[in-house]
Amino acid sequence: MRDELFFRTVYFIPVVTSMVGAAFSWKWLFEPTFGVVNWILGNFGISGPGWLATTEWSLRAMMVVGIWKQVGFAMVIFIAGLQTIPKELKEAAVVDGAGRVFLYSKVVLPLLNPTVVLVSIMLVINALRVFTIPYVMSAGGFTWATPGGPLDSTRTLVLHIYDLAFSKFDIGYASATAFVLLVLTMIVTIIQMKIVQRPFEY
Q: So what's the architecture of 2-196 in CATH?
């Protein structure tokens, strides 16, 4: 029980951590010359890439931070979903001779479908509206730096809206782009619900 609580805490800590603080910390971890990540790779004889300084690796590095930040949220929701599945159903399947693979693929996963739909929609929406990670990790929040670099390789739609509104002061274009983001989010959500959602019953 203590081990379970420990791992739940470890996985959920990133969710409640300040996004700005986490992004700054990961920015220094991915620093090409003195960063901890390249230092660890160097101990194994691997020459680490430039990470945030290259167009090839900058977006991948930020994706790692985004996944690290969201995995705890998904874990907690899935645990709650698993706890709502009646134990009697799983016990009945085992009595009928269901193996572990059959049990989880034919009993648990179908009953977990509402949770899968919720988590997938929430994570995709969070991905579409991501702002802080590319803003901090590409420019560091400094006014003289250009967020979304290098060469716009990490320029997200929300970051583009911010740049239009508060750097170029083109409020009309920024508002139109924000409306496009709203419509895009609605379309993606509807498509997800059509693809992922399945009827279920206890």
A: Orthogonal Bundle (1.10)
